[in-house]
């Protein structure tokens, strides 16, 4: 179970809620790893670390995040572009709590799209609480990301094929 907040500038509420949600979830016996971004203020990092207990690992964001995610049972995160792409590559079920302050809609749209494709459970930030997150985690653990309608991630190869096909038609 990986809980990540990207750079972390706005992730303290998700991290603290995850700590409170763990004992309420069916995944309470699994270790939960919370990755704290480098932009989270030091005081908030200390608060998150102090609140964590047995079975909760709090550490800085790691450069091997994609590999961690590939071995994880579940991802809990916001719906940032990079993390969302990593979730797709890792084929891991997810709970997405999009950043939606100040009229931001990009992450909300992405979270809803992932949910519509069976890749994630979307949880709006205004409904984020320990019980709602625990419930979302339990529902997400039932998802089968391998059976989900997953978009292709080989855009460069597809583009090269299309260009080669177009050139072949022109030369023919």
Automatic annotation (TrEMBL):
Pfam families: Glyco_tran_28_C (PF04101). InterPro entries: Glyco_trans_28_C. This is Glycosyl transferase family 28 C-terminal domain-containing protein. The lineage of its organism: Bacteria, Pseudomonadati, Pseudomonadota, Alphaproteobacteria, Hyphomicrobiales. It comes from the Bacteria. Gene3D superfamilies: Glycogen Phosphorylase B (3.40.50.2000). One of its GO terms (molecular function) is hexosyltransferase activity. Residues 3-146 form the Glycosyl transferase family 28 C-terminal domain. PANTHER family: SLL1722 PROTEIN, UDP-N-ACETYLGLUCOSAMINE--N-ACETYLMURAMYL-(PENTAPEPTIDE) PYROPHOSPHORYL-UNDECAPRENOL N-ACETYLGLUCOSAMINE TRANSFERASE 1.
